[in-house]
Amino acid sequence: MSQTVAAFLRCPRCGNENTADSFACNFCGFRLKVERIEKIKFFRRYEAQWTAPYPLYRKIFYLFVSAPRAFHDINHKRSKAPGWWIVLFCSLLYGLMGLAFASHFNFDDLTTFSVGQFLFNLSFFVSFFVFGFCSQTIFFGILIWLFTKGANYAVGFSDKLERRFEGIGAAKKKYKDTDISPFSIYKGGTMLHIEGAYKFKMLLCAFTPFLLINAIKILIVLFAFPTINSSNISSVNDSILAVMFESPIWGMLDVIDALTISIWVPILMTLAIRELSNSSTTRVLISTIIVGVIVAILFYFLRPTLFG
């Protein structure tokens, strides 16, 4: 599965010692073991010297175009991980999705640019924003728990974190005083040791794809859903919301979410777990893909009303 580059614990590039199960140097990022999957550019470990954290917009940009580079940066300053920002931005997109839904409702007693129309649109935005924030926080939290369980079976993820971050206070003194090799070319590697794990914030970054996915869903809702006039509602039971929720377009939205959960999110989750625990890419990827596919099947593809 892997080709050993260095059969000893001391990194050949910076001279610092690493544990036997390390796949990359904890100080300079030099790859101590090269896995076959890392020949693929998207999975290749980023080895450049870290100097300072990227600004928020660059972190999110690299999570789309160069995820190993993004997680390499985030892992060095985990307290600045943009996980909650991603949840917030996704929730704001949910609010805009609510406005897209509202644009399909035509009421005879509401005129364009009226106070009533503004309050109607505002209620949809706020409702969808609150729903998006609560539902996504819970859903992402459940997924992180499931991915963590899978990584525990694959590489002992939780045990690695406990060994690595249990004594943060002692680690600060240890790595600042005597543990760094006098020949080290990479003093910034201490950031990997003297800061807490911030596991939840870092793993939330794996859900960055939903920024793009939610934007795509907004366009689908805006252009694909039917526009409904209140005068066309035939009965009390046949409400506007009932007509809207019976649309087969919901099936398309569910399929997009399912593919994201089963493919894109597991890949980013693999990179996040790999960087956080310095583990095998292949083993973590297998576990995250399995969890993602199972969740996609249970939450989306088994719905009896998938296509309306």
How would you describe what is shown here?
- With 308 residues, the protein is mainly alpha-helical.
- 59% of the residues lie in helices and 3% in strands.
- The chain has a domain at 54-159 and 197-301.
- Mean pLDDT is 80; it is low at 1-7, 167-172 and 175-191.
- The chain contains 12 helices and 4 strands; from the N terminus they run ββαααβααααααβααα.
- α9 (209-224) packs antiparallel against α11.
Question: Topology of this structure?
Answer:
Elements: E1 2-4, E2 33-35, H1 56-65, H2 67-76, H3 83-102, E3 105-106, H4 115-155, H5 157-165, H6 168-177, H7 191-194, H8 199-204, H9 209-224, E4 228-229, H10 240-245, H11 249-277, H12 281-301
Parallel strand pairs: 3-4
Antiparallel strand pairs: 1-2
Helix pairs in contact: 1-2, 2-11, 3-4, 3-9, 4-5, 4-12, 9-11, 11-12
